[in-house]
Amino acid sequence: MEGVTDLTSPDDQTADAPADTPEPRLVSAPAEALRPVVEDERRLRELVASVADGHGPIAIDAERASGFRYGQKAYLVQLRRAGAGTWLVDPVMCPDLSELQDVVGDVEWVLHAATQDLPCLADLGLHPTRLFDTELGSRLAGRPRVGLAAAMEHYLGITLAKEHSAQDWSTRPLPEPWLVYAALDVEVLVDLRDAVDEDLRSQGKSGWAAEEFEALTHFRGPAPKVDPWRKTSGLHKVRTRRGLAVVRELWETRDRLAQDRDCSPGRVLGDAAIVELALPSGADGTRRTPRAVQRNPQVWLAAVDRAMLLPEDELPAYHLPSDGPPPQRAWADKDPVAAARLGAVKELVAGLSASVAVPAENLLTPDTLRRVVWAPPVDESAQGFREILLDLGARPWQAGLVSPLLAEAASDHPYPPRV
């Protein structure tokens, strides 16, 4: 699926607001007293009944323990619906929320940066059929800052107390101030949805947003990576296949240990130590033992030994084969016309981005743009490009806007007649 966008911008990305902008009102506590966290079947049934009696969209958020625990599962789920109020659920104690799904499955969900939360909510049995993403909606509306705090400030004139955003949400019991923080994330999320929706309508972008939100209902998380160990930070320093084998073995050992211990892999062994173990460091080719592995050296040195004993034909390749175009830096040599087209269409897309106030990467993902320029359709009309964009997963609104630009770039930079 192309372009289920997950490009959360930091709130400090742009300049400060003009001096005459009113100071946002600080909201530091929910409107109603917090209910006890839902931790058992009885309370879960109360939640389900309450939400069923509510009305309108339901605001949903989830807190994970990124950097502390293995994986991205939810450790707290927050829900708020008119007529039902705010509920906080402990998914460790209530890991099956399928009863709630029966109630909210047909209700519009309101989330901020939905791609962050949908996978862990799906693990609990929660799947939307309709949703509104206030982060993506703000992006399509042309807002330069789209984090939750910035969106709240712009559209609602409020700011939320956000001092607990990087906590270890697997902590039990969760401190009261953390629960207040979590409840605030859904306190006015439906109000934000309405304000963003009004902005989109005023700009004539409601149809675009509807296509994006419908695509998000099918999002189940990023596709599994081939050779995820190749994402090790600093891997570019490793210049031999044997060294790559060491990185792979260390990465896989670390991942198994992290999963067994239910902790972040970086807390088991950092990427820097993995790369250091993979690099010969002495004049005689010996390897240093980084300080990070000295607490349990036998595990890591055994992994290095396994990699060093591999036969040549089992060593990893320098690069994975790709089904996409070559690196852009090679285009000028491999296909000068394609390189010229790409430069031209990027300029055209940048102009379109400015005119419609939508980021270029939301008009079409960079990967899709490169693929269609590198391997264009036989029919290089706007219709021909539109069809190939749809085949690659672009939404109709994206294909409709970008295909004429691709046709224009192709017309200005035609291939010579081929014999």
Automatic annotation (TrEMBL):
Pfam families xrefs: DNA_pol_A_exo1, DNA_pol_A_exoN, HRDC
Taxonomy, superkingdom: Bacteria
Segments of this protein annotated with the region Disordered: 1-27
Composition bias, Low complexity: 8-20
GO molecular function, one term: nucleotide binding
SUPFAM superfamilies referenced in this protein's UniProt entry, alphabetically: HRDC-like, Ribonuclease H-like
InterPro entries for the chain: 3'-5'_exonuclease_dom, Exo_C, HRDC-like_sf, HRDC_dom, HRDC_dom_sf, RNase_D-like, RNaseH-like_sf, RNaseH_sf
3'-5' exonuclease domain residues: 35-201
Endpoints of the signal sequence: none
GO biological process: nucleobase-containing compound metabolic process
Entry protein name: Ribonuclease D
